[in-house]
Write a structure and sequence with these properties.
The chain is built from one helix and nine strands; from the N terminus they run βββββαββββ. It is an all-beta fold. It has a nine-stranded antiparallel β-sheet with strand order 1-2-3-4-5-6-7-8-9. The longest helix has 4 residues. The protein is elongated, with a radius of gyration of 21 Å.
Length: 193
């Protein structure tokens, strides 16, 4: 284990049906003008396992998102703006921590802006895409994992083909409540099918 207490957190990797209940939700998108899409999403479910004290613990997740992508002739390229905020509410329960039951509301948000000079004639330049991203994660103050994050990421993508991109980025993670600040170099390649 990593030595971190995860009581009260949702595990999105756990796909086992431990309570014979199903998650239910959806997303609605709206396009007020062609380059802009705004969406609202939600999901609700029982998250506690059957035959445990957490069987009646429910979760509600809600979020909004925004996408704005536009080619702009004056700057000879494409601007891509993404933003999202999500909230999760998990019923108050005693998860076996020393603090007892706590209000289990969390939120996270991000905004990301990139620019690709897609109208420039030089292939090496037109395939570069500088990217900046800011994100925050907020945990409930009574949770055992009470460390909030403010992350800043600066990067550059290089588009080898329309469906193949190589990415390099530097991420600075500033943590609250005595958490360690992290500095990370990220290198990855993504292929779309």
């Amino acid at each position: 284990t990593d030595g971190v207490t995860h009581e009260g957190e949702l595990s999105f990797k756990n796909t086992n049906d431990t309570n014979h209940n199903k998650a239910f939700g959806g997303r609605v998108g709206f396009v007020p003008i062609p380059p802009l899409e705004v969406g609202y999403s939600w999901e609700t479910s029982r998250v506690g396992a059957h035959d445990t004290n957490f069987y009646h613990v429910n979760a509600l997740l809600q979020g909004w998102d925004l996408s704005y992508v536009r080619d702009l002739d004056p700057i000879k390229g494409t601007v891509n703006l993404k933003a999202e905020q999500i909230w999760s509410h998990v019923d108050e329960a005693d998860y076996g921590t020393s603090g007892g039951a706590f209000k289990n509301d969390r939120w996270a948000r991000y905004v990301q802006l990139s620019y690709r000079p897609s109208q420039v004639d030089l292939p090496i330049i037109k395939n570069l895409e500088p990217v900046f991203r800011f994100d925050q994660i907020h945990h409930p103050s009574a949770a055992p994992t009470f460390v909030n994050h403010n992350r800043y990421t600066w990067g550059v993508d290089y588009w080898i083909r329309p469906n193949v991109v190589t990415k390099a980025a530097y991420e600075k993670d500033l943590q609250s409540e005595g958490g360690a600040n992290n500095h990370t170099i990220i290198l990855e390649t993504a292929v779309g099918f």
